[in-house]
Amino acid sequence: xxxxxxGVSAGKIASNVQKKLTRAQEKVLQKLGKADETKDExxxxxxxxxxxxxxxxxxxxxxxxxxxxxxxxxxxxxxKLTECLQEIYEPEWPGREETNRIAENNDLLWTDxxxxxxxxxxxTMDTYLGQFPDIKSRIAKRxxxxxxxxxxxxxxxxxxxAKKKDDTKIAKPVSLLxxxxxxxxxxxxxxxxxxxxxxxxxxxxxxxxxxxxxFEEMNADLQEELPSLxxxxxxFYVNTFQSxxxxxxxFHKEMGKLHQNLNDVMKTLETQEGKPSTxxxxxxxxxxxxxxxxxxxxxxxxxxxxxxxxxxxxxxxxDGPPAASTEPKTTNHASEEPSAPASFLVDAPTVVIxxxxxxxxxxxxxxxxxxxxxxxxxxxxxxxxxxxxxPAVVTETFSATVNGxxxxxxxxxxxxxxxxxxxxxxxxxxxTDNDELNLKSGDVVLVTQFDNPEEQxxxxxxGIKESxxxxxxxxxxxxxxxxxxxxxxxx
Length: 491
Hints:
Helices cover 53% and strands 10% of the residues. It has ten helices and nine strands. The strands form two sheets. Strands 8-7-6-5-9 form a five-stranded antiparallel beta sheet. Strands 1-2-3-4 form a four-stranded antiparallel beta sheet, with no helix packed on it. The protein is elongated, with a radius of gyration of 51 Å. The model is unreliable at 296-412 (pLDDT under 50).
């Protein structure tokens, strides 16, 4: 029995090897153009559609598995988050039971959503793709049977074309054995050759019919199944994504209700015993990496030895008695500012600004309305050798005579130099260095450019509070840096 099984197995292996050799030989002949190859363009189109459908289905299955893995990961993260809330929620706080119930329902919702996705989407997807391997194997087998059919047909045609040669060979013996044989024996040899030729031709014909039948049966089945499978993709995609969309919609609806309940619990906790919570979340500024801006300026200006003042009245020449002013006395409503280092106004340009106010209804005969601001460099007042280190002296004269009364008002400057936009403080900020601004919630700050862009730290802006600017205070003295995340853009 073992020997018989071994013999059958060996015979089957030899038969398979012979078939592979025959198919390989036939393919070579077809490529060389020495054998005809059966073509079916309609079936080839069906195979292309099948391969495309298989590729799309496999990608959809892979992405669906990734989506399910993400849902599982989100479920775990949400569960840990709710567990953390349960741990930190103290027993005496209101809403503890409600919080526990929300956590349980949250876990149930995620579990149910994941399981329904598996049942209604992933398993359906697996079933849909489960039919492709069998059809793919049948397509490959059909291709092999087509080669067998072409090979059998080619072999039979070869025997048919050799029939004339065999007839000639039988009619005129050419071998020495045939010539040496007696006359009566030559007839038997000829009959034997005819019988052998007919047998080979009959075997070839039978093999041709057999291979043709097998091929045509497989081809007919696939010609019917492949178009049907191709058309089924539309309904499958519709059902799959409808299921996913419906499940996700219901899940988010229920989850939204839970989140609303949790929000209500948090509001109750916030107003515990009817008292609003005073523990507001503190906004922190981004740490600064660079040195104090004003410290660097002081290091640069340490060579300046003689301070100067910013005066609201004209300066007197250094030599000789003070000149008597012909201008009316000015009443300045702006508060006098403390002295500033002379280095703050180094290299200040000479600017003359003249403005003529509207004429009064009854001007005095001996006075003319006048409003003039002159900025004169200190070089005109000091020795020329010191002009590079002394500041400009600001002289402002604002006068107007109305009904014999002299009045004056501070000028309204438009915007500070390098102005960009306005911001409004959203939180209080206490300055931690002398070049920073103190901010109160609601303060409006005029943001300006840095003199040196390299001085700017990430997350920090330069500017001056609008209230300081409108009070005609010096920009260089009252500008400062402040954290950007404490403010929002205003204009």
